[in-house]
Amino acid sequence: MTKAAGPEAVRKRVRAFALGLPGAVEEFPWGESVIKVNKKVFVFLGVDDGSHPPGVTVKLKDPEAHAHALTSPGAEPAGYGLGKAGWVRIPLDEQGAPAAELLCDWAEESYRVIAPKKLIAELDGG
Fold first, then answer.
1. 97 occurs within a structural domain
2. What per-residue confidence (pLDDT) applies to 50?
3. How many domains does the chain have?
4. Would the pTM count as exceeding 0.85?
5. Tens digits of per-residue pLDDT, 28-49?
6. Rounded CA gap, 120 and 126, in Å?
7. Looking at residue 80, which CATH number applies to its domain?
8. b/e per residue, 88-117, with b = 16+ CB within 10 A?
9. Taking Cα atoms as reference points, which of 41, 52, 68, 60 lies closest to residue 11?
């Protein structure tokens, strides 16, 4: 039986996946890692210096994905009023935290909400 990847490994996988999406770039406003497309954030990765618990924050407009994300252990609507817009913070250090694959699906969903149609077409092989 394989051990589930630790929070840092999961965070790295999500970061690498998000940066692989068309037009995605990483920036560090407020000292936190964010992945943007078209100057708009689609994934918050927070800090990786151990000062805050590891987590991923994504924007999920699809009601099923949003509801599913909120069932993750410790997950909550994002702070600063972002939760009202569909942003969900998912902790990575909780027992039963989502697998990297699911988090990557959610990162892609968040990307599709934010990215211009041209880049989504590129992602879909158009």
1. yes
2. 86
3. 1
4. yes
5. 998 999 999 999 999 999 998 8
6. 8
7. 3.90.1150.30
8. bbbbbebeebbebebbbbbbbbbbbbbbee
9. 52
Asked if pLDDT for residue 62 goes beyond 90, the answer is yes
Give the angle 38-17-37 at the CA atoms, nearest 5°.
5
- Which residue type is seen at 75? A
For 80, half-sphere exposure in the C-beta direction (CA atoms, 13 angstrom radius) is 3
Of 1, 3, 4, 13, nearest in space to 107 by CA: 13
What pLDDT does residue 1 have?
A: 44
First-to-last C-alpha distance (Å) of the chain:
40
Q: Which two tokens stand for residue 125?
A: 């092989």
Within a domain: residue 90? yes
Nearest of 9, 89, 76 to residue 43 by alpha carbon: 89
